[in-house]
Specification:
It is built from 8 helices and no strands. The relative contact order is 0.06.
């Protein structure tokens, strides 16, 4: 693909190897088997990629019950399993300590982007012009 070809042009074997590992990890084959295995074996504390699990939950929610009023226990089991994996990563607390240099950097970046509410509305109008049906501008005017 495009990203892999650009990495090869750069010639960094270390970056190319890391890229290949990431492609393998996030491969969609077998319903993202590699990614799920990595999550199952990850040590806490860990920040999970919740998007993967919410995608599964959305998919399970769209599965129709087979026999009308009967409960689809397979669907319920899969939903519960996804929620259990998300909750697992919430059990262990992170032992974070403040790092002055990081805080100073983040505060400087935050100060550079802090805007007023009017600035945010002006930016929203750039993306959703005034008078457009269903846009932010219409909702704000109400």
């Amino acid at each position: 693909d495009y990203a892999s070809s650009k990495l090869n042009e750069v010639g960094s074997s270390r970056v190319a190897k890391m890229w290949a590992e990431l492609e393998t990890l996030f491969s969609p084959e077998r319903d993202s088997h590699n990614f799920k295995q990595a999550h199952f074996t990850a040590l806490s504390p860990c920040v999970p990629y919740v998007g993967r699990w919410t995608r599964d939950l959305t998919f399970f929610g769209e599965i129709e019950d087979r026999d009308g009023d009967l409960v689809n226990f397979d669907k319920m089991r899969k939903q519960a399993e996804s929620i259990r994996w998300i909750k697992q990563f919430q059990l262990t607390r992170f032992q974070l300590r403040p790092v002055a240099r990081v805080q100073a950097y983040l505060n400087a970046r935050l100060q550079a982007v802090i805007k007023t509410e009017d600035d945010f509305w002006a930016m929203s109008y750039e993306h959703v012009p005034r008078g457009m049906k269903g846009g932010l501008a219409e909702a704000h005017a109400v």
